[in-house]
Amino acid sequence: MAKVKAGGSSKNIHNNAGQRLGVKRFGGQAVSTGEVLVRQTGSTKIAGPGTFISRNFTIHAAKDGIVSFKSIKKSRFTGKTERRTQVVVE
């Protein structure tokens, strides 16, 4: 038996704006210090030399230079190695 009489469902609650995630500066582009390179949820890409990662896993440029992406092998906690993309500013 229902606790509340005629309890309906709301239909307009899933209309949130997107988070605008993704790569913001691509390989070969010139960047200046502090520019956002990648916005991501979790550490899907790794910050390499010339970059730093902020609290919400956004990768920024730590110096002026050219952006490049490298594929590296990274070991997990279990010992298994996986390929990850590393963001580098040279």
Which terms would index this structure?
single chain, 90 residues, mainly beta, OB fold (Dihydrolipoamide Acetyltransferase, E2P), 4-stranded mixed beta sheet, 8 strands, elongated
Question: How are the SSEs placed, and which strands pair?
Answer:
Blueprint: E1 22-23, E2 30-31, E3 36-39, E4 45-47, E5 51-53, E6 59-61, E7 65-75, E8 81-89
Parallel strand pairs: 4-8
Antiparallel strand pairs: 1-3, 2-7, 3-6, 5-6, 7-8
Structural write-up:
This protein is an all-beta fold and 90 residues long. The chain has a single domain (22-89), classed as RNA polymerase II/Efflux pump adaptor protein, barrel-sandwich hybrid domain (OB fold (Dihydrolipoamide Acetyltransferase, E2P)). The protein contains no helices and 8 strands. The chain has strands spanning 22-23, 30-31, 36-39, 45-47, 51-53, 59-61, 65-75, 81-89. The strands form 2 sheets. The chain has a 4-stranded antiparallel sheet, with no helix packed on it. A 4-stranded mixed sheet has the order 2-7-8-4, with no helix packed on it. Strand 5 and strand 6 form a beta hairpin. The N and C termini lie far apart (67 Å).
